[in-house]
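User: Okay, second chain of the day. Same drill as before: sequence in, structure tokens out.
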Amino acid sequence: MGAKINWYVAIAVGNSGWRAFSEQWGYLMHELTLLADGKAARWLVLFFEPSAGVIISYRLDRCGYLLFGSNWTAMRILFFPVILFLGLWSCRHEICWKAEVGKGLRIIHPTLGVVMHAEAIVGENCVLLGGNIIGGRKSIRRGELVVGNNVVLGVHACVLGPVKVGNRVQIGAGAVVVHDLADDAVAVGIPARPISERRVSA
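Assistant: Same drill. Structure tokens below.
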């Protein structure tokens, strides 16, 4: 009886999640278009690139979670062949399907690895150069680990919450962010400190 209830819950959550599923699919298409860089010929080789594999793997996993909610953890067993294929196709990464990542995610060198906490909230147009961690120094709740829009993380840069990073922030290679960063900051070092704020005219 309990199993049947779980399936009914999954279906109900799935129906309410179709809009979110569609949104994620749109994000995926946008990100693949960015990788294609406006060149039709690149679509022929795009799916052999590690960056595409990681993004597709995360977005499809995220779609499953948005459709089925907490039931997705158990239901992933049913999709094990697909998940295994995506894992072999893409580079090794640990971007949790619960992490909320906005449109325009780009991973430049995914072979260096990417880790993203389940409670992370990341804005649009995030650029990860590779070897990046967006995680926590301790237990994190939703809303305590936030990265704004148009943020760039250099190679091996890490954001360790609880922390909030503003919009249009640039984080230097090897930096470790453990303190909040304001909009337009450029931060370097361990722990990362802002060295400047880029002035943006109104």
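Residues 93-202 form a domain with the UDP N-Acetylglucosamine Acyltransferase; domain 1 fold (CATH 2.160.10.10).

User: Thanks, on to the next one.
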